Structures are given as structure tokens and as C-alpha cells.
Amino acid sequence: MRTAFGRLALALSTATVALLGGARPAHAGALLPERGGSPNADRIASVYTVVLVLAGVVFAGVTVAVVLALVRYRARRNPVAAQIRGHTRLEIAWTVAATALIVFIAVFSLARLHAIDHPDDAAASPRTAALLNLHDPRQPLHIAVVGQQYLWRYTYPNGAFSYQELVAPVGVTVVLDITSVDVAHSWWIPKLGGKFDAIPGYTSHTWFRLERPGVYRGQCAELCGRNHADMTAKVRGVSPAAYAAWVARQKRLIDAARTAAAHDQSQTEVPYGRP
Amino acid sequence: MAVLDPAARTRTRTPVPELVTDRVEPRRRHWVAWITTTDHKRIGILYLVTAFAFMVLGGTEALLMRSQLAEPSNTLLTPQAYNQVLTMHGTTMVFLAVMPMWAGFANYFVPLQVGARDMAFPRLNALSYWLYAAGGLVFYASVFFTPPEAGWTAYTPLSSGHYLPGNGTDAWIFLIHLTGTSSILGALNVTATIANMRAPGMGWSRLPLFCWSLLAQAIMIILTLPVVAAAVTLLLTDRHFGTCFYDPSCGGSAMLWQHLFWFFGHPEVYIMILPAFGLISEVLPVFARKPIFGYKAIAASSVGIAFLSMLVWAHHMFSTPLPQVALVFFMVSSMAIAIPTGVKVLNWVATLFHGSIHLRTPLWFAAGFLLLFTLGGITGVMLAIFPIDRQVHDTYFVVAHFHFVLVAGSVSSVMAALYYWFPKMTGRMLSERLGKVSCALQFAGFLMTFLIQHSLGLSGMPRRIYTYRADTGWGTDNLISTIGAFVLGVGVLLTLVNVLRSLRRGAPAGSDPWKGNTLEWFTPSPPPPHNFDVIPQVRSVEPMQDLRRQVREATSGAAR
User: Angle at Cα A204 formed by Cα B317 and Cα A194, nearest 5°?
Assistant: First the structure.
């Protein structure tokens, strides 16, 4: 009986692992968190994978044990129940085993924490650093993210800003400083790592480092009112040169619009004595 | 033989007498008697009937949401209506269905299990019920005005008067006040009853495990519900009297609400699940005909969980700006809860091994609980790891996780409790056939609804969104989930039909249909108003086993 149980448990855990191994990145969302945009998302997915395998083994074990007990010890096959009230050594053993598993998972995750939480200090190329006005190629690019009911606003280092779509250079560590001006929101682009809440009066920080150009989508993840579902966000990764050009153009356009507005205002302010 | 009515014994001709304590006059079935009752059993039934009614309401709200999400860009509900329904659903299920359901079973069965004639404070007990009913009434009255729409967590600043000026949030606040007071009074009553009114010989190590779990639950209620009551009072004064506790624009903190709410909110999860643990610890030994494995470990782990539950609240806030040391502390403390919980699961499985298992409906639900709750517990450990949590927090992964714990955990156990104790409460058995079909449908429907939601969350679907676009690719999974929800609904409905049919036509149950272990089975079904003529001496954790043995010995002596 014990060997049959062992074999069944082994078969099930093998099947779980095979299932996980067989999952192609294309179906990442079905079993694993999204990844493939930024190193922090990839590192989270790898921690998740290890924990999922351990979880699968534990769950398979409990399932097999319950089903086996219900089949093997049903009244028809086992009319007289053994009157066992406990087994101190066995109970101590599984408490220690459960504790050991938890400690292992905690230590394993905490060991990977630094790489997930802290911005990569991988240096940008000197040319990129020059393009982006970074004094030190290891310095990250700071972009401010501000949530407001149903829209994200991004402010770039040169003072330019944009709404909804954030434009970011590829191959450079970008640090986001996230806050809100009204209710709580939550910034989340699944492929670029975990979510961080935008709470008025506080600033959260996260980072990403785009590996390749492309558009990465996400949406607000904290109930923020009736149109919470429509508060989408987009990160467009472009080459550093294209980023520098875009951000300069954006600044120019905004300044021009401001000047025009100021001019309009002075025009519409009716001068004294005019009819 | 103190345990036997001597008159009954001399009158009986058959060699196996039933354990009978009294000849009971039929009670008046008058509605005034129900309103003025202070009998713990009637109050228990009032709780259970009201809570089931609210569960059907909350379930209907769930089906409305699932219907809205069945296909992309659906327009069945407006964004405002969706937020209202989601707030009503969460609040109803937590405060008006699951918590009072356990209050109902606790009311009915704690005095019976400890061998008392009523709760310690019968009139306070009636007050608890009527406060709960008033809370439900006040909350649902908002349907006719402006229902609340900030979610059951009512995060500030969204819930402040500036963003949601209608009176719905105020109705929600008063619901917390009323049901919270009700729960605190109920918890004091349960604690006083268990501490002072146990049968002679029932030391702490012979207290039924259901009572142990309720004691642990009562401690959590007494320590944490005052916190949320205070928190919603601050919200009320912020909304109407110009204070600034939560408003950052005048010196308050939006995070303060989250800390106060979750200091209550996480123990609340265990307030809903601990009685389920207790119930499972009662059902498994009875249907395996075997003593519970590791009584002390199970009782101790209930108390351990109650203690730890108050040290883990910030794991609901891993995506907010918190210092690293707090993140690590709350991660480790949350993971630590898995140890007492895991010990319980292993003890339950070990109880089944080498038993003589009678697969009756209560055990079906208990087995379903064991499998699905374990899965919910495991995803709980994953969520405790905060880098992982930041990917899946506030997504359908979390929705799936807490429904595994609260539906497959608490509601499955409520079902097991219903099938287990209905014969005691009514004197009639529920139909086994209908019960097993209902269990199978609930199991299949539940898995279909919630298993796939893990995937939805992992692929980026946040919770609490009223719709999503087709190009997200979430359509198929959502449709499967919606179909599953309706199957689950049919499963619950079948149990309702079963209850209504069996009230009239169920097979007579007798006083002890399951060969129970605890003292409630010593009384006739339903028990008389004073429960016991003679309160038996308790000699072990399974007093009914001892009593049956005594009866066997006495009758075999008489036959000779």
C-alpha cells in the first residue's frame, strides 16, 4: 500500500512538473505571471515558477492522500475503525517538515528580493547616456507618474509630459515615482513587473528596463471609481535616440502651446478703452 | 443510570432503548413567539434562515456580475451599477451571510455541545440577532436610494464624501456598526457560555473542537471588530462633520484607513474560516468512526491561528509604499500561518486513515473542503511572497484565492454543517440523493468558476472592472467562469429545495442518526426548550461514545 501511494505521488508530481515545463512562454498567462518586458518581471516569474512547483507537489500529495483514504478505508472494505488518537512523533515530524518548507520558500524568495526590488545598475552605453543627459551611465532615468480619475499623466526630466502613453528608451533603467492627485490608483504593466499603488500624499517607486522596443499594456489595478476599467496605461519602448527626439519635440510643442495660450489670453483680455 | 429516563426503561420492551430525556409538548408556532424568543435554538434558527436569505441575495448579485463579464464590452450593467453590485455582493457575503451563518450554528450548538440549558446571556443573545437583522435592513434600504459603490473595503479617499456623496457609504458604515456590535455581543456570550457552563467533567481538554474554534473566533471578534467600528466612525465624521482623518489635502492619511481596515479585515478571514475548521474536526471523526487525530494539536492550532491572524494585516498592502522591513515582517508572519493550518490539514487526513468511512453527504462536503481549501491555502502562501503578490494583487488571482478559502472553505463547511445538524434541528433527515447531487454540482461549478480565474489574474485581468475589451483575450476564460457560476448556483438551489422538501417529508431522524460523539446527540430531535433533563457526566472528548457503551452494558445486563 505504502509503495503504491509513493508511486502515485511520484507520478502526479512528475506530471505537474512536466505540465509546467511544457508550458510555452506564449501561454505564460495561463500558469505563470506575465514576463518578457523587463528583468524584474522575469525574476518574479522565476520565483513564482519554483514556488508553484513546490505548491503543486504539496497539493498533489494532499489530494492523493484524501482520495486514497476515502477509497481504501470506506466502511465496506474496512468495517472496524482503528481507535488511534494521535502519534506524537509523527505530528512533531510533519510540523517540522511544514516549517522547513516555509522557511525554505521564505529564504529562497528573500534571496532574490534585491534583484527584483532595486533598479538595475547595468550601465547604459556612453552614447545613450549622453543622449539622455545622464551624468553617470549607471544613473537611472526618472519619470513621474501621476494618477487621476481615469487617466495617467507622465512627466519627463525635461519638463515635457504626456497622458496615457508613456514613452521610454530601450536598454536604460527607468525609475517611476508614482503618486495620485485624487483617489488611490495602482500602476501596473504586467510585463514590466509588479504593481505599485498611487496614493495621494505618498510616492511609490518602481523601475523597469525595457529589453526590446514595443508596446506594453496595462491598466489601473485599484478600484478608483465608475470608469476604473477604462483607466488604461501603455508603455511604448523606443530607441534612446528616438526617445530623446520625442521628448524634445514634446517639450517644444508644449512650450509653443503655452506661449500661444498666454498670447491668446493677453489678446482676449480686453484693453482699456477698446470698443 | 442517570443517563436513562427510568420510566422509559421499564416501559420499553425492545432491548435497545433510545436515549430519551423528556416527553416534549409541541411548541406553539406563533410568530410572536419567534420575535420574543430568548431560546438559543430559536435564535439560532432565526440567524440561519436570515443568513441563508442573504446568501441567496449575495449569490444573485454574484451571478449579475458574472453575466456582465461573460463577454467583452458587455452592457448588461452600467459601470455605476456594476460597482454597486460588487459592493453589495462582498458586504452581504461577509457581514450578512457567512459570519451570521456561523453565529447561527454557534447559537444552536454551543450550549448543546457543552451540556448547557441556554447561552450565558439569553436576552443579550436575542439583542445580537436583532442588531444583525437591523444592520441588514439599513444596508439594503440603500437600494432604494444610492447604493454604496466603493467596494466592501471602502478605500479612502474614494469612499469620502467628496467622491461619493450619496448616502450608500453611510448605510455601509451603519451596517458595520450594527452587525459589528451584534458580533461582539455574540462573541462575549459564546466565551462566557464555554468558560462557565460546561457539563460536569468537561475540562478544557474535553471541549468539542467546534467549541474550541468558536472560542478562538470569539477572541478575534472581541479584539478586532472594535477597531473597524472606530475606523468607520472616523470615516463617518470625515464625510459629514469636517474632520480630516483620511483626507490628505488637510493633513490626514489615505493609508491610515487601509491599516485600520485590514487590522480587522485579515482576522475577519479567520473569523469566517475558523468555525469551518471546527466543524470539519467534528464531521470527520463521526463519519470515519474514529477519534480525531491529534485533538490537542488541532485545538492549539486554532488558538495559534487566532493569534497570528492579528500580525499579518499589511499583506493586503504589499503594493502600497511601505518600508522594506515591514514588507519582510508581514511576508514572514503571513507564511507562518501556513504552519498551523497545514498541521490541521494533515491531522484531518490522518483522521480518515484506518477509519471506517461512511460516505454520507456531510462527509462529501467535508472531503470537498479538504481538497479545495488546501488549494486556497497554498495560493495564500504564494500571495504572502510580496514580489509575487505585486504581480497578482488586485487581480482575478486574488479573487480566485479568497473564493477558494471562503466558498470552498467556509460555505462548503456551512453545507456540511447543514446536512450534519439538520436532523437535530428539525427531527428529519435531508435527502441523501439530492444532497449528493447538490454537492457534486457545487464542487464542479465551483472549480469551473474559480480555477480558471487564477489564469485570468496571471494574464493581467484586474478585479473590480466592469468590462474588458475583446483584444485582451480574456473572453473565453470569463465565459467558462460564468457558466461555472450558474452551475454552482443550481447546486446551492438544490440544497434549498432539499431543505424545504425535507421539512415536511424527510425521514424521521431519531435523536442520534449519525452516531455522533458530542452531547447535542443526547437530546431528542429537535431538543426541548431546556435541552437536557439530566446533564450527563463527561468522561472523555466523545461523551456520546461513553453513553452508548453504558447503554449497551446496561441493556445486555437487562437481557440476561
Answer: 65
Letter string b/e over residues B462-477, b meaning 16 or more CB atoms within 10 A of that residue's CB: bbbbbbbeeeeebbeb
pLDDT tens digits, B485-540 = 999 999 999 999 999 999 999 999 999 999 999 999 999 999 999 999 999 999 99
Residue A252 distance to chain B (closest CA, Å): 33
The DSSP H or E segment spanning A69 is helix A39-72
How many residues are listed for chain B in this entry? 560
Residue type, B261: F
CA atoms of B383 and B379, how far apart (whole Å): 6
Give the model confidence (pLDDT) of B189-233 as tens digits.
999 999 999 999 999 999 999 999 999 999 999 999 999 999 999
* A106 close contact with B: CB closer than 8 A: yes
Which residue among A32, A73, A86 sits closest to B352, beta carbon to beta carbon?
A73
User: What is the length of chain A?
Assistant: 275
String of DSSP letters for B41-93: HHHHHHHHHHHHHHHHHHHHHHHHHHHHHTSTT--SS-HHHHHHHHHHHHHII
Interface subset of A 136-175, CB within 8 angstroms of B: none
Annotated catalytic, B246?
Answer: no
- Per DSSP, the three-state class of B220 is helix
Q: For residues B8 and B16, what is the distance between their CA atoms, to the nearest angstrom? A: 11
Shortest CB distance from B349 goes to which of A66, A195, A201?
A: A66
Question: By C-alpha distance, which of A111, A4, A96, A97 is closest to A58?
Answer: A97
pLDDT at B14: 47
Calculate Rg over the CA atoms of chain B: 24
Distance from CA of A248 to the nearest CA of B (A): 32
DSSP H or E run through B350: helix B338-352
Using N-to-C axis directions, what is the helix angle for B168-196 and B209-240, rounded to 10°?
Answer: 150
Sorting pLDDT into bands at 50, 70 and 90, what band is B26?
low
**Which residues of chain B are within 8 Å of residue A107 when distances are taken between CB atoms?**
none
Phi, psi dihedral angles at B326 (to 5 degrees): -70, -40
User: In chain A, which residue's Cα lies nearest the Cα of B367?
Assistant: A66
Which of A195, A205, A232, A234 is the best mutation test for B, with the most CBs of B within 10 A?
A195
Nearest CB to A99; choose among B294, B339, B370:
B339
Does A33 contact chain B (CB < 8 Å)? yes
Q: Can you read off the three cell numbers belonging to residue B104?
A: 447561527
Q: Say which residue the cell 469551473 belongs to.
A: B448
Three cell numbers written together for B205: 481538554
Cα separation, B356 vs B286, in Å, equals 10
For residue B522, CA distances in Å to A14, B7, B17, B289, B556 come to 50, 17, 13, 17, 20
Q: Is there a catalytic annotation at residue B530?
A: no
Distance of CA A28 to the CA centre of its chain: 14
- Contacting residues for B269 by C-beta, under 8 A, at least 6 apart: B309, B402, B405, B406
Contact with chain B for residue A19, Cβ under 8 A: no
Q: Does A208 touch chain B (CB under 8 A)?
A: no
> Which residues are CB-contacts of B24 (< 8 A; sequence separation ≥ 6)?
B524, B528
Specify whether the CB–CB gap between A109 and A126 falls below 8 A: no
Q: Do B458 and A226 touch (CB under 8 A)?
A: no
Residue B348 is a catalytic residue: no
At B81, the amino acid letter reads A
Check if B42 is active-site.
no
Most distant CA atoms of chain A, gap in Å: 110
